[in-house]
Design goal:
Blueprint lengths: L6 H10 L8 E3 L2 H9 L6 E4 L22 H6 L4 E4 L5 H9 L3 E4 L5 H14 L3 H18 L9 E5 L1 E2 L2 E2 L6 H8 L3 E2 L13 H7 L3 E4 L16 H4 L3 E2 L5 H4 L5 H12 L7
Parallel strand pairs: 1-2, 1-3, 3-4, 5-8, 5-9, 9-10
Antiparallel strand pairs: 6-7
Helix pairs in contact: 5-6
Length: 270
Amino acid sequence: MIANISLIHIFLLLVSSNQHPVFRVVSLVPGVTEIIYALGAQDKLVGVVAQCDYPPNINKPIVGSFSSPNLERILAQSPEIVFVAGGEQKYLWRKLKELGIQIRIVSPKNLQEIYQSILEIGELLDVKDRADSLVNSLKKELVGAVCELPLQKRRVLIEISDTPLVTCGEGSFLDELILLAGGINVAHHIKKPYPIVSAEFVVKSNPNVIITTHPGSNPAKRLGWELVSAVKENRIYRDIDPNIILRPGPRVILGIKELRKRIYPELYKR
């Protein structure tokens, strides 16, 4: 794959990677793409992955998918910096570094790390004031979103997958969102961010609210789940845009609000 890249091209990439300020970036992380647009710095964005779908009608070159970015397409955009995630994109880090391209790993695990990511991206793209303003705005919005709660908190299960049954545990981004929305994550005690759990675990945990993030799921029809409070009380929700609660980015407060509306709908019927 790399053999087809000319030495001149590599030299230009090496030179451009040392220039300041940054003018050309590629984002392999949908949450980062959202941050760049929220900062009004999209003119510096020269490539994205297929999963970068917000804001709508992003008109940027596609350099592959999140799980399979295409190195040649990335290099064709002559980026100075490539924003990458952890996990399945790690194999690409070394290749980019060998070609002299700077990478920035952005994989926030909680709200504070989202704020920090926004500030760091703002600094890199020379829009520090906009980044400060965005973070301050999100913090104020959060205060307004969590100012009132019922006395009795509800137990919540977020179902990320049904085969196998995957939810969110301690240390996950979603675990914090449930807490900030005023709920109690029934899997909070599990020491894994995204554990596989059994149907028996759900019945025993007896969540008051079940929120699914994938299509086609119908917990109400599962054998034994008729005993679960969320099923008996018809508190199963499949209507939240999964990206606002699974994607760490500037829409995180909207995600908290939407979770809160499902956990405590009575607060919004006054």
